[in-house]
Write a structure and sequence with these properties.
Blueprint lengths: L1 H12 L2 H4 L7 H9 L4 E4 L11 E5 L3 H17 L10 H13 L3 E7 L9 H10 L1 E4 L2 E4 L2 E3 L7 E7 L8 E7 L7 E7 L4 E2 L2 E2 L2
Antiparallel strand pairs: 1-2, 2-3, 3-7, 4-5, 4-8, 6-7, 8-9, 10-11
Length: 202
């Protein structure tokens, strides 16, 4: 009886990103939100003939993910040894300024890139810009811009127009990622799962 009541409490408590402030999330919950949640997953290769490590991606403009990034950064600073401070990144500041001005019209997919060497190749970057698309239902949208990974932020941040609604059901990406083994990667997200307080949050 007690176990059944406890299960009911958990059921109605809602997900931890809604029921608890970020400072109360466990390290495991924080990692799960950034790696395996409605807004995060590992991007695979569309080719079954290619064996390559997965590439981590998440929606950097969704409210829970923005809170997770901020909380992860806060914890990293607390754990840093004295004298090991990381200098402020101009690229990170550029992204934050852009995001503040454009979040209402753009959504951003953050993709972890282990090496940013591919972004020094103009042909590779151009191919990414031309071949990377977001699919919303049956509609396709090209990327509107990107912020390459850097020493302070290992994530490529790709912007797309904010064009999704719950009625579209799915939102997917076909990307070309410079410098990544098996550079063609794809992922699909279910929009019904990407809600906070009953509203779509991207």
């Amino acid at each position: 009886m007690i176990a059944a009541l406890f299960s009911l409490v958990l059921l109605f408590a809602g997900p931890f990103w809604e029921s608890k402030p970020p400072m109360e999330w466990s390290d495991m919950e924080l990692e799960a939100l950034l790696t395996d949640s409605p807004w995060a997953q590992v991007m695979g290769s569309p080719s079954t003939a290619v064996s390559a490590p997965g590439v981590q991606a998440y929606f950097a403009t969704a409210s829970p993910m923005m809170a997770a990034e901020k909380e992860a950064e806060r914890r990293a600073k607390l754990r840093r040894k004295p004298g090991k401070e990381v200098p402020e990144s101009p690229e990170a500041n550029d992204y934050r300024d852009w995001l503040e001005e454009n979040r209402t019209t753009q959504l951003v997919l953050a993709v972890r890139i282990e090496s940013n060497r591919g972004f020094s190749d103009e042909a590779e970057v151009k191919r990414m810009e031309e071949e990377s698309v977001m699919k919303v239902g049956k509609r396709k949208f090209k990327m509107t811009g990107h912020f390459p990974p850097n020493a302070a932020d290992p994530y490529l941040r790709i912007a797309f127009p904010r064009q999704a609604a719950l009625s579209d059901k799915t939102l997917s990406f076909d990307l070309y990622l410079p410098g990544v083994p098996a550079p063609f990667r794809n992922a699909e997200f279910k929009l019904k799962d990407m809600q906070v307080d009953g509203k779509l949050d991207l």
